Recover the amino acids of this structure.
C-alpha cells in the first residue's frame, strides 16, 4: 500500500506517518488498520489509562508509552514490561531528565511534547535538541493531552529546528484536506507524523474503526 507523500519537490521528505493514541479497549482492531504508531497512556488520572497485560503487535507498528511527570524507574519498568519502542513525555520533564532517560533506554525513541495555544516560544526547544528524537506539538488545554481541539499549525512556520515532529490536538476525519494542505507548506518539511486520539473515539479508549479506516486510507 502506497503512503501519502508530502507534496513537494524536495526528495528528502518522508511519507507522513500516522499515530493513534489512547489505546485501550479495541487495540487489536486498530492495529489491523496498520498505523505506524499506537500510543498507550500510563497516567492514572487519564480516562484512557492503560493497565492491562502486554499487547502483542506486528513489529511494523511501534508501541509508544505516554507518561506525565513519571519517575524514570516507572518508565523503564513499563518499557520492559510492554516492549515499548518509544516514550512520549507529556509533563514538565527537563532536558536533564530526558538525557538520563535516553542513556537508560538504548534504542528507545524519546518524544518530548510541547503545548501550543496562540503562540509558542521556539527557543524553548533548544535545550532538548540533543536529548530527544522527536518533538510533538499538541494543544494547550486543561489536560496534558486529549483535549479535543487543535492549535493553528501556521505557528510552525517559525519552527527553527531540523528535528522531526508530530502534530497533534483535536485532529479528526474532517481535517484530512487541512493536513494535506499543511504538508504542501515549507514548514511541514520536518513533520514526521500526525497523532490522533479523542476525535476518533466512541468512548474514551474505544476507537471508531470506521472513522479511522477512512482517515488512514485518505492519507495513504
Amino acid at each position: 500500500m502506497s503512503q501519502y507523500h508530502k507534496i513537494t519537490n524536495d526528495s528528502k521528505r518522508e511519507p507522513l506517518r500516522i499515530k493513534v493514541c489512547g489505546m485501550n479497549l479495541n487495540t487489536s482492531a486498530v492495529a489491523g488498520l496498520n498505523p505506524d504508531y499506537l500510543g498507550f497512556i500510563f497516567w492514572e488520572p487519564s480516562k484512557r489509562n492503560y493497565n492491562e497485560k502486554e499487547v502483542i503487535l506486528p513489529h511494523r507498528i511501534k508501541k509508544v508509552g505516554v507518561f506525565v511527570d513519571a519517575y524514570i524507574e516507572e518508565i523503564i519498568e513499563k518499557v520492559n514490561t510492554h516492549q515499548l519502542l518509544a516514550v512520549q513525555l507529556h509533563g514538565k520533564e527537563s532536558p536533564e531528565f530526558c538525557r538520563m532517560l535516553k542513556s537508560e533506554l538504548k534504542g528507545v525513541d524519546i518524544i518530548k511534547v510541547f503545548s501550543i495555544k496562540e503562540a509558542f516560544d521556539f527557543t524553548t526547544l533548544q535545550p532538548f535538541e540533543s536529548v530527544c528524537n522527536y518533538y510533538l506539538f499538541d494543544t494547550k488545554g486543561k489536560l496534558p493531552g486529549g483535549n479535543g481541539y487543535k492549535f493553528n499549525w501556521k505557528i510552525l512556520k517559525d519552527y527553527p529546528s531540523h528535528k522531526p515532529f508530530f502534530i497533534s490536538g483535536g485532529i479528526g476525519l474532517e481535517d484530512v484536506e487541512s493536513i494535506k494542505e499543511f504538508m504542501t507548506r515549507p514548514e511541514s518539511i520536518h513533520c514526521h507524523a500526525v497523532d490522533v486520539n479523542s476525535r476518533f473515539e466512541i468512548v474514551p479508549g474505544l476507537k471508531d474503526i470506521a472513522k479511522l479506516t477512512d482517515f488512514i486510507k485518505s492519507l495513504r
Notes: Residues 17-218 form a domain with the TIM Barrel fold (CATH 3.20.20.70). The chain has one domain: 17-218. The CA atoms of residues 110 and 132 lie 5 Å apart.
